[in-house]
Batch of 4 targets.
Target 1
Amino acid sequence: MRPPVQAPPGGGGYGAAGSGGGSAGASYSAGGHGSSAQFSPDPALSWSAPMAPGSGRPVVSFGEPEGYDEQARPRPLGMRLRPRIAVAAACVVLGVGLIGGAVTGSWLVGEPGDGGARDTFAAAGSLWHGVPVDQLFPRTVIGKGAGPGGADRIWTRIAVAPDSGCTGAFDPLLRKALAPVGCQRLLRATYTDATQSYVTTVGLLFTDADATAMRSLDGRFSKEGLDRRTDLMPRPYAAKGTKAAGFGNDQRASWTVSVLTDAPVVVYAVSGWADHRTVDEPQPADEAMESGATTAVAQAGLGHEAKGLADRIERALRKNVGPSTEQSS
């Protein structure tokens, strides 16, 4: 008996009728070209054929379906499904994180007209008489990575000024620049670093302004570069009997001024040497912190002293109003 003849390559396609429209039930010829012998399936291979005693139905396993990649190479479809699931899971986690961050930090980014933002803005304005001084100006401030080259810094509070108005606290031009937002209360404290080589006064000016006025002042400082002018430096608090006793106007080396827009507060800091040396060319903190800066102020890290301490006092202020998205360091 002749063996069954396999279907010729290229015939049929995916399924029933071929492109020539022939019937799906047509049989292939068994011989060579022109042979009339017909091919009939072996009944013993039929699913309905009786099984021999003791034998079971054949076990059939289906291969993993294949697809094609962008270069038309076969690939199992399941291999692409798993990465898609992973990507989808990552998107869900990211979305939840973004929503959580938006909720916990809402007072920082509240839109104008948002009732919650207005409440926290007002709450921040009352901190000067409702929060202990140790919470606004901690006795010890740790600044991880706050020094030159990412070095850590530790500052110790050596003096706290009595809360007061703004008379005598600022140079005349800075006082004039801050006048549009008013002065409700001014809080100041002076710190020294771990080596007691530098002294830094940090201040919190609580204004009488609303959010619109604070945004306007912030815009002016940024646009006109008011925070970089040497004739607009804040004054230090020189406490008698401390390392800062001789920290006067002529000893100011570097400074920073930050106008907050989500609280009626201006945060500033001014730094100098603890040996009370006179500084002929003070430098704004941002410039003194730039890579490659070679001035004496920059080389001493006095820009880092002012900026690093001001940033961490600002964080302490925010913690007393509500949850913050920033991590203290």
Target 2
Amino acid sequence: MTIETTQLGSLTSLRQRNVSTVLKVLRQHGGMTQVELAEATLLSTATISSIVRELSEKNEVETTSVSRNGRHAWLVTLAAGSSLAAGISIDDHGISIATGDANHGVVSSRFLPLAGLQQLDTTLIRLIGFLREMLEEMGRELGELKAIVVALPAPLDGQGNAVIPNMLPGWSEGMFSEAFVSATGKAPSLIGVSDASCRAYLETSGGVHSRVDTLYIHADDVISGSLVLNGKIYHGSNGVIGQFGHLQVDPNGAVCACGRRGCLNTVVGAPALRTLMMPSRGDLTLRDILNDARDGDTASLRLMEEVAETIARTVEPVVSMLGPDEVVIGGSMAKVGKPFFDAFAYTLDRQSFPAGKSWSVVPGPEDALDVARGALFIATDKVMIVS
């Protein structure tokens, strides 16, 4: 009898862990088909089907009939609460949107590729249409949105305005709000924030890196970042905290988009790396260079190691002064992997104060949708505050 009871308890515990895993994946990544859930959780499709049926009966998830690759499938999403919010990221690559509510986190997330940063009015038309489609799949409407956080690839002040206007030509919160009033008859509560702050917020709101003090570096087409002090994102008085790409490394260097000369971005940003590789490899994209580095190409790998060393030297004074629990590096450059992190950590340890200190350097978010998810968490927190 004892053995049977123990076995029953073990099976119940296993079932609870599996259910928890499914809910966690849905909260982090939004809606998935049952097949995608099985792949993401490493559970069998039969187990997923049983769990989805159980959660559906408890009104914890909702299922919608969809077509994927010409085949019928069931899309599973967390049951949305009343406080609907959206996190939106707009950058040179496209539009990322995550929707959800204050109770469940991410319900749905999508990415819409764009050919470069376009005019704001054109971008808004596509964005609203894209967002409307997502909400309709959830059985919701644009007018139900309570809060929206828009993440942009530039420093923004406390009012959501660009600190350096020529880095975000045409952007204004007023124009964004007007577009939603035109589409829905009302404007949701709107906040503009930098993309790096959203990534850091994602890390501190349930991410794997939730230390008290963290220096976050986003190494991508440009270099940006954020500071988490005492468990909270530090914004400063003017919104430029964490703009590591605009720390000067060469007073006589190329002119940066910010108007100054020799910023870190002009040395290790995507345009600079493409220029360095062009004589020997032709016109490569940053993605091409990173893929070659991961494949072991000597020139590309050495270049990315030098990039890591340059970034480490540039942020070393910040690390030495603040003494964070860990340094988190995310973005596409982090996908180069161990050689990139080893070069960064070696240079930082060698140059930082106190001498002999070995800093914790760990990988951070790389997914294109991570910015939108971080923006959503900011939005849902705002909903909980004002509701």
Target 3
Amino acid sequence: MSKSIHRKELIVIYRQEILKDIRLFTSQPVTKFYDSLFLNLDLSFITEFPKTGRKGFSNHAMICAFIVMKCEGFSMITDLVDYLNNNLLIAHYCGFDISAPLPSYWTFDRFLKQIDNDMLSSIMKSQVLYLSKQSIIDTSFIGLDSTPIAANTSQNNPKSFLSNKFKPDNQPKADADCKLGVHTASNQTNEKKYEFYWGYKNHVLVDCISGLPIYELTTTANVYDSTVALDILADTHTFLPVTECTFLADKGYDVKNIYKQVQELYHGKCIIPLNKRNTKSPKLLPQGNPVCEASLAMWKDGKFSTWLHSSKILLSIKIK
């Protein structure tokens, strides 16, 4: 009888030890990924704890936690909180003390509202420079595009049938900073589908060879893509030269100033499709020939002299 009791006690002890082993409850490839990711993430230039007041949680750990949130594809902070509490090993790699309670929803929410965007830009810049030194990315072939970011407002809800939800003067009360924008709902060139939305734009410059981002800029949704392209190239050039680059973009960047600056300042070239909205219908003569800016007739075969054209015809007849 005593042996069976002793055996049950041992089983309970073994179960407790198994529960303490946090490695058994997280996928090993996932843990290796985050361990390697955070070991190569330089946050030394960011103050880890405030100089005055309560110590609180480490800023480095909080930033790593939000990186986990994005890598896992979570859209809600509550999902992040549950994930860290159920995967203590990853919380440990973030930098949290797993022997103490982890940050609550309100702690993460407050940190997200108070974080400075310049801090995130500095982190991205340091990682880009590190990848450049490792010859993983370069600026020989770069591309720029924007993606819409919808504001969290009911006026963006497709189930809302309000007639004035996309009126410029009907500013959403839930987000006073967002603006009204439009984006294409289809990538097909022959389909003209557009959608209005309230929100922002994320402009991202990428290395087209590796597919990794080099620079990002967030603006309101009413900012045209072409108006920020030169600023993005100039800011990138300050820490990572874009000299002799090949600049790839869509027809939204078909602007003369972009061609001029890329060629003259950076000695590069542009690959941008023609935006037909920026072209003018040429003047035509009665016989159908277009007229150039100098008011001269343009010939489809490249000849602008009827005498030259007739002379070549006569010459071909004599040869025959």
Target 4
Amino acid sequence: MNQSDRRAPDRAPEAAGARPGTGGGPPRDGRTERGRRTREKIADAMLSLLDDGETQFPADRVAERAGVSRRLVFHHFADMGQLQDTAIARRLDQLAARIGPLPAEGPRETRVAALVEQRARILEWITPARLTMMRLENPTERVEFATRQVLDFARRRLAEVFAEELDRLTGDRREDLLNGLDAVTTWGAWYHWRSSGLDQAAARRTMEATVHALLAVTDRASAPDPAGPAAGDGPSSPPAGAPTPLPAR
């Protein structure tokens, strides 16, 4: 993991230790800040191992990657499970930083293109970590909960971006369309296309074409029924072959 890829401090300078009246200078005791940086370095070391495809994270290996002692790892983390939770939370912070706003109005082509560009970029980036997480023997409840949160957020984003089309349907038909959009824009579909031999550009085009095909269902739902009479038309003619009614006497 690139050590330059660090999030901003969680707290404002004053809350992190600066004292009023010091002119914003360094805190009197820098141990808290040094401890925070060391914790991030150790968490980033675990993420680096995860990105390399490793599924076991012994303390000695993490310490070596972080350039610290094994004792220091357990000084900052009660056990490896706590370190794993911290590392996953850090990866989710990095993921959130890559998710920008998407248009919820405007031409469909624009909205689909923006969504697919963002999804393709993020799904490709998380693939190494996702593959490793699938091989973890005992993922913690926090990791499973965080994963569920990400998936739920992605589904809500779809509902916002394509609200115009989804609102043309009701009940099960609306839910079915949202389920389909969710299925083809999340990691499972992306990994299927990439592992089948498609390069990133081809996989992205496939996702875009599939999203457009699914949304086209709503165009048919909103179009007038060509078999029905137009407004203001008179009575329809009897079907071919039907008996001609007798004139009234």
